[in-house]
Amino acid sequence: EDKVVQSPLSLVVHEGDTVTLNCSYEVTNFRSLLWYKQEKKAPTFLFMLTSSGIEKKSGRLSSILDKKELFSILNITATQTGDSAIYLCASDTYGGSQGNLIFGKGTKLSVKP
Amino acid sequence: NAGVTQTPKFRVLKTGQSMTLLCAQDMNHEYMYWYRQDPGMGLRLIHYSVGEGTTAKGEVPDGYNVSRLKKQNFLLGLESAAPSQTSVYFCASSPIRDPTGGETQYFGPGTRLLVL
User: Fold this and answer.
1) Maximum CA pair distance of chain A?
2) Does the distance separating the beta carbons of A48 and B103 come in below 8 Å?
3) For residue B78, with 0-12 CB atoms within 10 Å meaning exposed, 13-18 middle and 19 or more buried, which class applies?
4) In angstroms, what separates the C-alpha of B90 from chain A's closest C-alpha?
5) Phi, psi for residue A81 in degrees, rounded to 5
6) pLDDT: which is higher, A63 or B1
7) Which residues partner with A34 through β-bridges?
8) The pLDDT of residue B14
9) What confidence score (pLDDT) does residue B100 get?
10) In chain B, which residues have their Cβ closer than 8 Å to the Cβ of A99?
11) Is A67 left (phi over 0), alpha (psi -120 to 50) or beta?
12) From the CA of B29, how many Å to the nearest CA of chain A?
């Protein structure tokens, strides 16, 4: 059975800390790994990773994929209170008759001032 | 618990046809959502509902209608399908937002729609 597992499920840090969120996956026909930030209603797209070892960066956020070990990490440096959110990881797969995204349960990050 | 289920799993429509996608959740969640996912674009919110009998527009509502007559069901309708609506549709639900402002959404398996 395909699955995506995120850890930790929740995390509390103080402003200025650096955090690393983990996402491991076991899926057939893997295509890409996506990260989302979910604050209020809808998750917002952060990164799509398709190749191993190539870091994607956006400001203080960065992410990398390891297709050999089947995991990805999301790093946030110099955290701010505005980074408080649930971070979702999803695996995108090829083929199948229905939706291709398999979501993890998310990591809830709380950044305290 | 089955969690969030969606029917159908896959559908092919001709331009101009109509159809309804059904989302059902058995977790007694207040909030329900419909998203579409297109290659390279991630998820986009179509409509959402904060409770039985209520609906609201999301980021890309045009061409879609929704109804939440029962708490456990959220229907997404396409009155006149267009090729631009070819996509994968995900439904999600979440409990009442917790006091800290976060909410975990639980996603269904998705529905693949092809409009010819």
Assistant:
1) 46
2) no
3) buried
4) 7
5) -60, -30
6) A63
7) A48, A90
8) 97
9) 38
10) 6, 37, 88-90, 108-112
11) alpha
12) 14
B51, B53, B59, B63 alpha-carbon torsion, rounded to 10°: 150
pLDDT confidence bin for A11, thresholds 50/70/90: very high
- Which residues from A are below 8 Å from B48, CB to CB? 41-42
How far CA A6 is from CA of A47, A70, A72, B34, in Å, comes to 16, 12, 10, 23
CB-CB neighbors (< 8 A) of B88 in chain A = 98-101
Structure tokens at A99: 């939706």
Residues 38-57 of A with CB under 8 A from B: 38-45, 48
DSSP state of B88: E
**SS3 track for A11-80:** EEEECCCCEEEEEEEECCCEEEEEEEEECCCCEEEEEEECCCCCCEEECCEEEEEECCCCEEEEEECCCC
